[in-house]
Design a protein that fits this description.
Distance between the termini: 41 Å
Structural class: mainly alpha
Radius of gyration: 18 Å
Strand content: under 5%
Largest sheet: none
CATH class: Mainly Alpha
Number of strands: 0
Shape: globular
Number of domains: 1
């Protein structure tokens, strides 16, 4: 059987496009996250979305809006603790993560069936509809436009925050903006990998690209390349061997990281 025959089916074509878009969203934002050593925030957001999504389920809202609300609350809470209350960033993330995730678990315990949230945890990329795909495309456009408009400022504040402050680029405001973009990108991957695996899409392609280059433009391009290849190969493996799509995509992504690490070791 030709593995490419998998994409003769409409649901597999939608799954591929959704994976490509969600992976690119997370990977592009993840490049700035890795440069700023803020990888922990991705893991926090992938867990703190839970109460927002459950609230949306209770109120019969689209799950995206509940997840986005919780993501923005996480970003705002972390930013406020760091900037106004002088709490270290990793400490602030830990506080917000523990609090919101505990709230989500409490809300789950009040729900009659936990099965309603299975796709939220592990993803359901094969169930992506055309409307979901169009919505993810719109999110991609917003992210790309924002990153294009603020690329120079984000690059400068990522490499030299003190100089960025000196010339008046307001790195604190940019930090809030980046946290909001992280929230948006993680929420956009809910239907693909689920909350437990969204962090991998955010961090692993960027970490892999960082091993191969020091130039931000090259890192951004490699991030999209690795996330796209991981999505394609992961879906083919999932279809061929009948395994979880989200898990297959992330494991392929991890494989690229290990290859890049071996290459960097060989180069000393």
């Amino acid at each position: 059987m030709n593995p490419l025959d998998a994409f003769d089916h409409g649901f597999m074509q939608r799954a591929l496009w959704a994976s490509l878009l969600a992976g690119a969203n997370c990977a592009l934002v993840g490049a700035y996250i890795v440069l700023r050593r803020m990888a922990f925030i991705g893991g926090a957001l992938s867990h703190t979305l839970l109460p927002g999504v459950i609230l949306a389920y209770w109120l019969h809202w689209p799950l995206f809006w509940g997840g986005l609300l919780a993501g923005l609350a996480t970003a705002g809470g972390v930013g406020a603790l760091v900037q106004r209350h002088k709490v270290y960033e990793d400490t602030a993330i830990g506080i917000v993560l523990s609090s919101l995730f505990a709230l989500g678990i409490l809300m789950v315990s009040c729900t009659q069936s936990f099965k309603n949230f299975e796709s939220l945890l592990i993803g359901n990329v094969l169930g992506v509809s055309s409307a979901d795909l169009i919505f993810t495309l719109k999110i991609s456009c917003v992210l790309l436009l924002t990153l294009f408009l603020f690329h120079k400022e984000l690059e400068l504040s990522s490499f030299d925050a003190e100089y960025a402050t000196f010339i008046g680029t307001r790195p604190k405001a940019l930090n809030y903006l980046l946290l909001c973009l992280v929230a948006l990108s993680v929420v956009s991957s809910l239907s693909v990998t689920g909350t437990l695996l969204a962090n991998a899409f955010l961090i692993i392609p960027a970490a892999t690209a960082r091993l191969l280059s020091d130039r931000l433009c090259v890192i951004l391009a490699l991030c999209v390349l690795f996330s796209s290849l991981s999505s394609f190969i992961g879906l083919v493996l999932s279809y061929t061997y009948n395994v979880s799509c989200g898990a297959a995509i992330v494991l392929v992504c991890s494989g690229f990281f290990m290859l890049a690490k071996l290459w960097s070791w060989s180069k000393g």
